[in-house]
Design goal:
about 350 residues, alpha+beta, Phosphorylase Kinase, domain 1, Aminoglycoside 3'-phosphotransferase, Chain: A, domain 2, 5-stranded antiparallel β-sheet, two-stranded antiparallel ribbon, globular
Length: about 350
């Protein structure tokens, strides 16, 4: 690992064309609509395209909004498919259980923008950045007092607990939820492996099967991408829970382990670069204790679930690495596993060092 990108190209779409198309679309229901100040955001996330814009209609003052768009094939999407309607309905289902943006419109027809999209309210606050990672020493979260970091950590675990307490929408229910989840991940890897295969990832799938949890517990709504980078905070408290594209139905441990591993992944990278990181943040014992206090349920088999999280991160790195090659931002390495920023940690996990 020689470098970590500070920017990732997400889209080839023209913001001005998007502005005009959004305005024309909105004028279909509100003839006086004005759309202005369309721009993308790049501090977090690697998948769906996020557009910030202002809009007014029916004589209203400009309203700050966010549109989530499925990426185009030309932009080398991370996932093989994007169900924006499902995400929109999950946000609506989560309202009242966790803080989420208000929902405005869902447009499954790709005609207007060339892709499905939905629109939600924009919420002001701070998000721990991914690029560069928040634990690299320059973020507001890194610079916060330890008690404020802990307050944010505990509040985020509480968000996960509240997601798990939500009523389960019927469209999420599947038989054998964990098997279904891993099978979907395998299909995702097969999609990524059309360009760059990874023997390590394939070994990790074999490891998962050989070490399958004996008791998966009762399945719940799983947020999926349960990272601090997918939460907007204000005064270290969550004010919006974002990015539901990986949401599903499965064991509680999927989200608990993902929260911890997402931070551990950044810590591993910080160590490689000789940076201090945030070793006291999102430690397993602290996260588990808070989750138990919030739910009465003690997560189990967390080594298995963190290894599964590491496998999924590896797939993201494969796909994002190939995207960088596609856009001419780097050369194709002789060994595609050089794309894996978590290669050595995943190898250690498979060898029993958790």
């Amino acid at each position: 690992m020689s470098d970590v990108p500070t920017e990732i190209r997400r889209s080839t779409r023209d913001p001005e064309l998007l502005r005009a198309s959004l305005q024309q679309w909105l004028r279909g229901s509100h003839p006086d609509a004005i759309v202005d100040d369309v721009r993308s955001t790049s501090s977090t996330g690697m998948s769906s395209e996020t557009l910030l814009f202002d809009a007014s209609w029916d004589g209203s003052e400009p309203v700050p909004l966010v549109a989530r768009l499925a990426p185009s094939d030309e932009d080398v999407p991370v996932f093989p498919s994007y169900d924006l309607t499902r995400q929109y309905e999950l946000i609506r289902a989560a309202a009242g259980h966790v803080p989420v943006p208000s929902t405005f419109w869902n447009e499954p027809d790709p005609t207007a923008l060339g892709t499905p999209f939905f629109v939600m309210g924009r919420i002001d606050g701070e998000v721990p950045p991914d690029l560069p990672p928040y634990d690299f020493g320059e973020s507001w979260l890194f610079s916060a007092a330890p008690e404020d970091q802990r307050r944010l950590q505990d509040a985020t675990v509480d968000v996960i607990a509240n997601v798990h307490a939500m009523p389960i929408p019927e469209f999420l229910r599947v038989d054998e939820p964990l098997r279904h989840h891993v099978a979907n991940t395998r299909r995702w890897y097969d999609f990524a492996a059309e360009n760059v295969a990874s023997p390590l990832v394939e070994e990790a799938f074999d490891w998962l099967d050989a070490n399958w949890p004996s008791d998966e517990g009762d399945p719940v709504v799983s947020w999926g991408d349960s990272r601090v980078g997918n939460v907007i905070y204000r005064d270290f408290e969550p004010v919006a829970v974002l990015d539901w594209e990986m949401a599903g139905f499965g064991p509680r441990e999927l989200d608990v382990a993902w929260l911890m591993y997402a931070h551990r992944n950044f810590e591993d990278i910080a160590t490689v670069f000789g940076l201090p990181g945030m070793p006291d943040f999102l430690r397993r014992d602290d996260v588990v204790a808070r989750y138990v206090a919030a739910t009465g349920y003690e997560p189990r088999d967390l080594d298995w679930y963190e290894t599964y999280s590491a496998l999924q991160f590896a797939i993201v790195y494969l796909r994002v690495g190939w995207r960088s090659v596609h856009f001419g931002e780097r050369e194709m390495p002789a060994d595609p596993e050089e794309f894996l920023y978590n290669r050595e940690p995943l190898q250690r996990m498979l060898a029993g060092d958790h």
